[in-house]
């Protein structure tokens, strides 16, 4: 055996604890050895570092091969909602930066309290000044025949998840024994992964320790509706199979075939090590209020401990324990007083919350609310004017509030009548969720998974974390199961004083501002360039990303027509090359054909280009023009020169801009035509072409309500009728087909053109980048658009004027300048010069 | 040990952009210039479906592929985030105002 400690050998083993402490604290840092690299062990070290980083030298032993990860998130990993990397709490760098010696895959097998050493499985032996045992729990395996067969899996660590995923990859049937929190999360994950799942539960209702019968029943029905089989009151007799699991036999004789059995019936504190070391152990390792065991040099924390007769199986108590422990280790001695816990089930779409005691009984009063149509069940148990328990199903928004009332033992007699309606009602009648959040006290726990209070979240927002991601990164609130995301968003809104609808969707990860904020600020502060916007609005990246750069480029272009210089490097390739990139890296070229009209000269020029540049294909598009495929990047300028020579300009088939104006034949030829739809289409295209937009924009003009140009699925559609022109907006073909909303009817062609210009400008100025007119109108409402375009005549006129002004700068053919040789380098290889040898 | 090839000056490459180099018998190489005037060279093929990376948007020390928007780290050629894959990189350096590209003999091995 060797000493891996690095500590100078001591002269004589210290017999007396007091002596050792004095000697060591004078000579060197004390050495804290932690057994268990799990949630409690690492959190204890984090708390300690936060209080006095230099005080202890830390070594952590972990039985698992991983860095510290968020065990509760194994469920989302199993369900495929997260990856392992996303649930890592502390990376290797964290250990390194804090000088922590992490030993993985090497469980501690013995503690010698006299010698003050621990010995790991590998033989590694380390001396400690203080020892912290944080070994967590072991899954309980019911002692039935077959329990050791390959294919019987517990649900505790990443290794178990890997085993389940392996099995799920092969498909087939799974049995989960245990209908508690863990079992149901396992069942959910496995069924999402494609297995047919049966849950076997001994008790008559699911999660009976957390839910009452009514909620348990609702939960069971919901799970069955999702295709799981739930057997309650079912007792396992045997797991059978030849050399591996083949199924489960119940005591009543039923057999359920399965290729894996997940055993999730409960946990037992992992106390073997402590017991062998002679520490006092009851159900768990016995600790006092400072998490000190029966040996003053040995502490214990987490699920492995018993405090005041209680053992815990949830994370919230760990956070409290770790705070008291770190206080104790740094001579502050605050003391742990036990925890009240609450439970949430992490199954997407099933909202279940429970807290406290809901068994009822003498002096207890139940307040129940059911809303069958919404599938909501709420029950709050009140005793002596205090909340003692709560069960919520289907709507758990008020869970934290009830839990807070319960923990504080607040007198609820005043709000008794509204209690069940939730906080918003009970605290003043306004059903304003923000007011409800504002009313929460600072020490109310917002994030149960990471033990973060409202005060801490607000502090980190005030310190500059002004997006959800930033809050997650700084104080970890909402970084785990995510059920408090709404609360954190509300706190962001309250603290930053911004109006947030469904949570602030920031423009991208580089900023905490939304699209609308950025646009407003650009105009308000008169910003003139992308770097200026990034600087002024505290971008978190040096030069943005492929989401924000094109958006900012557009916003600036729209705000400063004729003044802003377009940033080519902030445009997607198609807009930079003025052609559409194809999957083989060549380009397609679409010249404009006004209103779908063409003539021999244009057709001849296109035919020549096709032959001259060996274009493998030419095709009539859905936008009533021709598309030439397979042009090489190098040949683009020459192709454009040839097309320009025949009078053709770019069709912007690549742009967030006006695409096509489709027309039908109209009154000039068609026997039903009421107006000259073709002519109006050409005029409309001449007016709108070249304009940059938040997204692509399509127009069509049909000559009569038969609507052959499909005007009612266009961004702006005109349907001619005898008495004039019906104007339609917000249509979309594509992925989500949306028919237009009727805007209004006008009498003359000129009015149709004017309204079209005004509408286009409103869209350009107010929609978010990459938001087409259809989703934009769904968001703002067609009434709003009518008010701005139809009712407000002066406003319409101003919009139209702004559109035409901006068009005066944008109707230059982008091809012409390239054909004339500008930006030629974009199309050419760099030429290797001389060879310099080294 | 390397042959260095002079491919021009920094100003030949657009800021936050790229140009390509075609060497006899080699795959096309994309040479990037980042916002902080560093230069990187990669085979001009996205690890996903061979999109021409030279045509992507350059931000920080990464480029977003023009075809399906994967993010590729310029220094390592690795796809970022959820996506997995790697494009071979070629050594490149700036010396006396010139950009020197290592002769990519290694490419035959890597490609
Ligand atoms: C060429 C063309 C297909 C054809 O051969 O007919 C076409 C080709 C493409 N369409 Fe389209 N769309 C074409 C007409 C349409 C139409 C029909 C129309 O305009 O009447 C639609 C449905 C109408 C609509 O937009 O509402 C259409 C709905 C889409 C969509 C879905 C848009 C949506 O809002 O859901 C996309 C994807 C996108 O833009 O994000 C798309 C995207 C594309 C892209 C740009 C895909 C891409 O990103 O590379 C294709 C480019 C191929 C290329 O390199 O040329 N294309 N695309 C048509 C060109 C019309 C033109 O002359 O400019
Ligand atoms: C799938 C799942 C979902 C859960 N969901 C929730 C939830 O939604 N909400 C909630 O509050 N709680 C949840 N929990 C419970 C929560 O994860 C535990 O309460 C918490 O992890 C306990 O922390 P701990 O540090 O005490 O134990 P652990 O996190 O288990 O850490 C103990 C560590 O010690 C290691 N170890 C054991 N013995 C030794 C040894 N001799 N030497 C070295 N290392 C050793 C173990 O390998 C382990 O890594 C969930 C648990 C699981 C498994
Ligand atoms: S329908 Fe799909 S495949 Fe066809 S052109 Fe449009 S985007 Fe391409
Ligand atoms: S080819 Fe690059 S992302 Fe698909």
TrEMBL record, chain A:
Domain NADH-rubredoxin oxidoreductase C-terminal: 342-409
CDD domains listed in its UniProt record: NirB_Fer2_BFD-like_1 (cd19943), NirB_Fer2_BFD-like_2 (cd19944)
Recorded metabolic or biological pathway in which this protein acts: Nitrogen metabolism; nitrate reduction (assimilation)
MF term (GO), any: heme binding
Keyword set, alphabetical order: 2Fe-2S, 4Fe-4S, FAD, Flavoprotein, Heme, Iron, Iron-sulfur, Metal-binding, Nitrate assimilation, Oxidoreductase
Ranges for domain BFD-like [2Fe-2S]-binding: 446-493, 507-556
InterPro entries reported in the protein's UniProt record: BFD-like_2Fe2S-bd_dom, BFD-like_2Fe2S-bd_dom_sf, FAD/NAD-bd_sf, FAD/NAD-binding_dom, FAD/NAD-linked_Rdtase_dimer_sf, NasD-like, NiRdtase/SiRdtase_haem-b_fer, Nit/Sulf_reduc_fer-like_dom_sf
Family to which this protein belongs: Belongs to the nitrite and sulfite reductase 4Fe-4S domain family.
Name of this protein: Nitrite reductase
UniProtKB/TrEMBL annotation, chain B:
Listed GO biological process terms: nitrate assimilation
Keywords annotated in UniProt: 2Fe-2S, Iron, Iron-sulfur, Metal-binding, Nitrate assimilation, Oxidoreductase
Any one GO molecular-function label of the UniProt entry: 2 iron, 2 sulfur cluster binding
Domain of life: Bacteria
Domain named Rieske: residues: 5-101
Pfam families associated with the record: Rieske
Gene3D superfamilies xref list: Rieske [2Fe-2S] iron-sulphur domain
Protein name as annotated: Nitrite reductase
């Amino acid at each position: 055996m060797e000493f891996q400690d690095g500590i100078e050998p001591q002269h004589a083993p210290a017999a007396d604890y007091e002596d050792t402490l004095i000697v060591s604290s004078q000579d060197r840092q004390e050495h804290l050895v932690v057994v268990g690299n799990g949630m409690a062990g690492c959190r204890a070290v984090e708390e300690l570092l936060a209080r006095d980083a230099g005080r202890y030298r830390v070594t952590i032993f972990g039985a698992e091969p991983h860095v510290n990860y968020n065990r509760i998130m194994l469920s989302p990993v199993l369900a495929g909602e997260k990856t392992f990397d996303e649930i890592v709490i502390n990376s290797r760098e964290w250990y390194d930066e804090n000088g922590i010696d992490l030993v993985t895959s090497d469980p501690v097998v013995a503690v010698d309290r006299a010698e003050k050493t621990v010995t790991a499985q590998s033989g590694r032996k380390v001396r400690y000044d203080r020892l912290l045992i944080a070994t967590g729990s072991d899954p309980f395996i019911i002692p039935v025949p077959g329990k050791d067969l390959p294919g019987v899996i517990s649900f505790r660590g990443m290794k178990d998840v890997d085993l389940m995923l392996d099995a799920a990859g092969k498909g087939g049937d799974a049995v989960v024994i245990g209908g508690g929190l863990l079992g149901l999360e396992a069942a959910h994950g496995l069924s999402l992964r494609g297995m047919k799942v049966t849950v076997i539960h001994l008790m008559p209702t699911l999660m009976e320790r957390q839910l009452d019968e009514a909620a348990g029943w609702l939960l069971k029905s919901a799970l069955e509706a999702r295709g799981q089989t739930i057997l309650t009151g079912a007792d396992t007799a045997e797991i059978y199979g030849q050399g591996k699991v083949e199924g489960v036999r119940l005591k009543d004789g039923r057999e359920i075939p399965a290729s894996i059995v997940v055993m999730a019936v409960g946990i037992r504190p992992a106390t073997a090590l402590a017991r062998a070391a002679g520490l006092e152990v009851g159900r768990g390792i016995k600790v006092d209020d400072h998490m000190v065991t029966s040996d003053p040099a040995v502490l214990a924390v987490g699920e492995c401990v018993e405090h005041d007769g209680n053992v815990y199986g949830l994370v919230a108590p760990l956070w409290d324990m770790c705070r008291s422990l770190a206080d104790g280790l740094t001579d502050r001695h605050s003391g742990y007083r036990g925890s009240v816990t609450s439970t949430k089930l992490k199954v997407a779409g099933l909202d279940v919350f429970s807290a406290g005691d809901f068994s009822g009984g003498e002096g207890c009063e139940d307040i129940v609310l059911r809303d069958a149509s919404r599938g909501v069940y709420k029950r709050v148990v009140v005793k002596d004017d205090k909340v003692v328990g709560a069960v919520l199903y289907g709507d758990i928004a008020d869970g934290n509030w009830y839990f807070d009332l319960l923990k504080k033992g607040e007198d609820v007699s005043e709000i008794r009548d509204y209690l069940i309606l939730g906080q918003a009602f009970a605290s003043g009648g306004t059903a304003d969720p923000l007011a409800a959040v504002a009313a929460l006290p600072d020490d109310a726990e917002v994030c149960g998974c990471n033990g973060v209070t409202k005060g801490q979240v607000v502090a980190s927002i005030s310190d500059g974390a002004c997006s959800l991601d930033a809050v997650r990164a700084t104080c970890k609130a909402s970084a785990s199961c995510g059920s408090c995301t709404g609360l954190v968003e509300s706190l962001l809104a309250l603290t930053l004083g911004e109006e947030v609808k469904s949570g602030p969707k920031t423009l991208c990860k580089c900023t905490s501002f939304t699209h609308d904020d950025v646009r407003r600020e650009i105009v308000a502060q008169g910003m003139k360039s992308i770097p200026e916007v990034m600087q002024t609005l505290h971008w978190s990246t040096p030069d943005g990303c492929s989401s924000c750069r094109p958006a900012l480029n557009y916003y600036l272009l729209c705000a400063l027509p004729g003044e802003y210089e377009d940033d080519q490097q902030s445009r997607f390739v198609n807009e930079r090359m003025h052609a559409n990139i194809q999957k083989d890296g060549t380009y397609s070229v679409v010249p404009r054909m006004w209103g779908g009209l063409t003539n021999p000269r244009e057709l001849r020029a296109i035919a020549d280009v096709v032959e001259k540049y060996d274009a493998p294909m030419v095709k009539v598009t859905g936008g009533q023009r021709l598309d030439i495929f397979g042009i090489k990047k190098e040949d683009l300028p020459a192709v454009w020169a040839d097309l320009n020579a025949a009078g053709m300009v770019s069709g912007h088939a690549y742009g967030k801009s006006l695409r096509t104006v489709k027309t039908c034949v109209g009154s000039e030829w068609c026997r039903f035509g009421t107006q000259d739809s073709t002519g109006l289409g050409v005029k409309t295209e001449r007016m709108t072409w070249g304009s940059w937009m938040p997204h692509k924009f399509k127009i069509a003009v049909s000559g009569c309500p038969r609507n052959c140009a499909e005007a009612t699925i266009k961004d702006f559609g005109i349907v001619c009728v005898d008495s004039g022109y019906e104007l339609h907006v917000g249509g979309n073909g594509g992925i989500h087909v949306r028919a237009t909303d009727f805007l209004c009817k006008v009498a003359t062609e000129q009015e149709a053109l004017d309204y079209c210009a005004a509408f286009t400008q409103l869209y350009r100025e107010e929609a978010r980048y990459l938001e087409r007119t259809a989703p934009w109108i769904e968001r703002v409402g067609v009434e709003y658009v009518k008010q701005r375009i139809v009712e407000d005549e002066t406003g319409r006129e101003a919009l139209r004027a702004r559109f035409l002004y901006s068009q005066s700068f944008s109707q230059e053919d982008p091809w012409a300048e390239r054909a004339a040789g500008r930006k030629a380098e974009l199309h050419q290889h760099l030429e290797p010069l001389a060879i310099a040898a080294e | 040990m390397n042959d260095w090839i002079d491919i021009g000056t920094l100003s030949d490459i657009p800021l936050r952009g790229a140009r390509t180099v075609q060497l006899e018998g080699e795959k096309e190489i994309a040479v990037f210039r980042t916002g902080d005037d560093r230069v990187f060279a990669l085979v001009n093929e996205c690890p996903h479906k061979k999109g021409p990376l030279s045509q992507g948007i350059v931000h920080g020390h990464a480029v977003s592929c023009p075809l399906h928007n994967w993010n590729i780290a310029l220094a390592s050629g690795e796809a970022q985030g959820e996506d997995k894959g790697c494009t071979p990189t070629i050594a490149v350096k700036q010396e006396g105002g010139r950009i020197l590209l290592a002769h990519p003999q290694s490419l035959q091995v890597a490609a």
